[in-house]
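During the second half of the funding period, the structural biology subgroup turned its attention to how the target accommodates small molecules. The most pressing case was cobalamin, which had performed well in the primary screen but for which no bound structure existed. We therefore specified the complex as follows and requested a full 3D prediction, including the ligand pose.
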Amino acid sequence: MTEPTKPAPAERPRVLLVDPYRARDDPMERKFIELYPSLGLLTLAAFLRSHGCEVSIVDLTFSRDDRDFERALERWRPQVVGLHTKTLTYRRSISLARRAKSAGAVVVAGGPDAATRTDEYLADGVDAVAYSEGEEVLLDLARNVASGRPVEPWSGLAVRKDGKVVRGPPRPFLKDLDSLPLPAWDLVDMEAYLSAWERKTGERRAAILTSRGCPFHCSWCSKPTFGTTFRQQSPARVLAELRALRDRYRVNYVRFCDDVFGIQRSWLTQLLDGMERERLDLHFECLARVDLLKPDLLPRLKAAGLARVYVGVESGSQRMLDLMSRGTRLSQVESVATALRREGIRQFWFLMLGYPGETLEDIEATPALFRRFSPEEYSVSIAVPIPGTRFFDSVRDRLKDPGARRASDGGKTLLYEAAYPNRLYRWQQTRFRIEAALARTRGRLPDRAREGLSRTADRFNEKVATPLLTGGKKPR
Ligand code: B12
Ligand code: SF4
């Protein structure tokens, strides 16, 4: 295994980065638009550019076909084509990779899917996979290719040699995230994203990331690229990015995409101070953990523009939270949910059914919790064992779909032999829809009538649906 040298390339490396995702192929996206350009690609492009490469992005998100990609291959003749991969886009990535290779480019894949199933990408024709943080890995690859060197398993890259996958040594993570240039927004059609949001919500929304990694250890969570490291930008660097988004693109709503936002309280208060001082006049949303989101901080967050919080509630059973190594308490859920309601901040709950060890009693606890707090929004998915997680390892011998690859069908299908049949979990998802519909009648239907309907749904669940759908099956 050779370490990459720092060659002086004969010509400036020419790199074409591609987001293979097409929103029109994705029914979920058509229903709930949550479109943002890939921050991974925007950051990679900015980094390469700041190191002297020529870079272009083909973002297929709004495309009907792959013509933009074909044109870029023909006219621009990139030496390297870099694909951003998610499980949803596996097949498309492979077909784009084949076309790029036939146009003579070296193809490298990166992102969460390629990092998780590296061997398959390599077997299906990709020349190399960047299996972790991508900036320095891609820069080295581009420089080496531009200098005419054949691809080797340089640090951070996996390649196939003599039919075997060879992984180069891991590359140390970037230490200073402040050194990253601002994302290369100019290389994608920002206006297409912003006006899609504007039509839908009246706001011009953009995404930003202030940290990489997450130090927690939830057993079902896949963190293929940044792992459990945790690094964050300084509040000053974050403010510079917020300012740029506002000044250049008239952004007035920001989604903080960090795995967990505001892990360090002192960092968060400095950022809030800055946002107030600079009168950024933005609304924002973020993902939070109930153990970190202290109710006393909520008025501050609200004043700074916090409009919506995604909360990983997951289950109404403490036993399940413990089995998931979630590290949170139901009492924390209760106090955070109450405080969010008091402050008028929208809450979006993530809930999960079908995790190993869940009994009917545990299942019951979740709609009960949901009913008490009626979050404005929620998603309830059936637990997906993602390769590389402890959950996946624990059900490896019970997988239904070998490899359990469909990381996303909206969490409707059990991918392993769980305690109960899929249809029970699907019915439980319907129960949440009933609860949410009843919650929406608040103010229009008398409380007693609503409670009566809830009780009827419970009785139907207990006496009819559950016995029928479990077929008397005992949990494993
Ligand atoms: C923010 C976010 C979103 C946002 C925005 C997505 C976007 N367009 O950027 C929204 C809410 C829209 C979203 C939607 C979905 N998401 Co999402 N999302 C995330 C999250 C939290 C952060 C992504 C991010 O911005 N990272 C920051 C950038 C800098 O990192 P990065 O993209 O990984 O890129 C780095 C490396 O991977 C590598 N790299 C990436 N691409 C490439 C390409 C090359 C050539 C190279 C060399 C390197 C390289 O280098 C980059 C810089 O170091 C991640 C979790 C996570 N921590 O990554 C989940 C995550 C990516 N999402 C996930 C999923 C499943 C989804 C959905 C399918 C959910 C759903 N059921 O609808 C949809 C997909 C829709 C879509 N458009 O792709 C999964 C992906 C799992 C998988 N294997 O596919 C993740 C990993 C969460 C998880 N643990 O399950 N998501
Ligand atoms: S689920 Fe969230 S808090 Fe838990 S490990 Fe994953 S990113 Fe971290």
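Two results from this model are relevant to the next phase. The longest strand covers residues 306-314. Residues 14-167 form a domain with the Rossmann fold fold (CATH 3.40.50.280).
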